[in-house]
Amino acid sequence: MKNKFKVAVLGSTGYVGMELVKILSNHPYVDINFLGSETTHGIYLNNIDNTEEYNELPLLKANNSFNAEDSDYVFLALPHAVSNKYVKKYFNKINIIDLSADFRLDNFDVYKKNYGNEHECKEHLNNFIYGLAEINREKILYSKNIAVPGCYPTSILLPLIPLIKNKLIDTKNIIIDSKSGYSGAGKKFDFNKMKSKNDYNFYNYNTNNHRHIVEIKQELNKQNSDNEVKFSFNPHILPNFRGMISTIYCDLKDSIQKTDIINLFQDLQKINPFIKYIDNDEMLDFFSIQNTNYCKIKIFDHYSQDKLIIVSAIDNLIKGAAGQAVQCFNISENIEETLSLV
Fold first, then answer.
1. 63-118: per-residue pLDDT in tens?
2. DSSP secondary-structure letter at 193?
3. Which residue among 91, 101, 120, 144 has its CA within the 20 to 30 Å range from the CA of 170?
């Protein structure tokens, strides 16, 4: 392995991009040699946010001025329908880790229905590995093109996929209730929706019609070839800046006990450094996961013994985006998975 990888970040001035730069700045095997932005050029990132990690970094330049020959990796912290334009330019010229939705879906018709037809290289959809690190670790190893999952899917798939894969829960009627900090909506989010002169707001949106539903469905169905996984999904926005909690209500299969679920999650955390199963009275809240790359999971009793309530918490900007991207980078280069993330 080389001493350091030259790394570029396009979209480095967004919430996710700035988190990504912070993490990569502390990585012992990374040299950030290009920072790009669609709108902000000719200044330094610490002029936007005076954070210590941003010191001594390259001047911000236009995203489209990046030359793939100058770096080993490019992280694309760009919006959907924008990222694919850069992938078209760089594919097979550089290792790509894409944090948009542009390469998460296997089927272009599904992408088109949810994100529109602004995709310039749909032929590469199946050339990206879905970067859910704990589930696809072996596929990510030595991969050159990685699509980082969305934040809602990460918080939902990490607890659900092992349960479905091991046939521990019924897949006909799963209920998912998720709550996110407003940073998930990006810098263009109108905070006036969150605050009046008297109080803070809280609301659900796009119930059973959110763009991430197809991503969740795609990955769950890969684990359940017998029947389609059926679920309801109700996302909410909280007045918190960062954090995400998904509460999942599911039915246990016949003869499956709560202890079987506990044993599974305890085994998962033994082999996954960023999965933490909470088996005590510890509070599972935003404070417990903010600014970390952990997914913390806790289960609660239902009044019926054949049902279970699972709560999963992540930082939407880190485990749901920038941190998972760096985790995938570490795995792909077969270096310590936790580097710069703990």
1. 999 999 999 999 999 999 999 999 999 999 999 999 999 999 999 999 999 999 88
2. G
3. 101
The neighbouring-strand residues paired with 300 are 309
Residue of 200, 215, 181 lying closest to 314 (CA atoms): 181
| CATH number of the domain that residue 88 is part of | 3.40.50.720
> In this predicted model, what pLDDT tens digit does every residue of 224-252 receive, in sequence order?
877 899 999 999 999 999 999 999 999 99
Domain annotation covers residue 281: yes
SS3 assignment for 85-140: HHHHHHCCCCEEEECCCCCCCCCHHHHHHHHCCCCCCHHHHHHCEECCCCCCHHHH
Q: What is the pLDDT of residues 125-154, one digit of tens each?
A: 999 999 999 999 999 999 999 999 999 999
Residue 121 annotated as catalytic = no
Instruction: Give the model confidence (pLDDT) of 104-131 as tens digits.
Output: 999 999 999 999 988 999 999 999 999 9
The domain in which residue 10 lies consists of 5-127
**What's the alpha-carbon Rg for the chain, to the nearest Å?**
20
- 60 burial via Cβ count (<10 Å: 0-12, 13-18, 19+): buried
Do 174 and 309 share a domain, yes or no? yes
Query: Chain-wide mean pLDDT for the chain?
Result: 95
Q: Please answer whether residues 222 and 107 qualify as being in contact, where contact means their C-beta atoms are separated by less than 8 angstroms.
A: no
How many residues comprise the chain? 342
CATH of the domain at 266: 3.30.360.10
Give CA angle at 339 (219, 277), nearest 5°.
55
Catalytic residue among 121, 151, 250, 295: 151
Contacts for 70 with CB less than 8 Å, ≥ 6 apart = 6, 8, 33, 34
Separation between Cα atoms, residue 117 and residue 329, nearest integer Å: 29
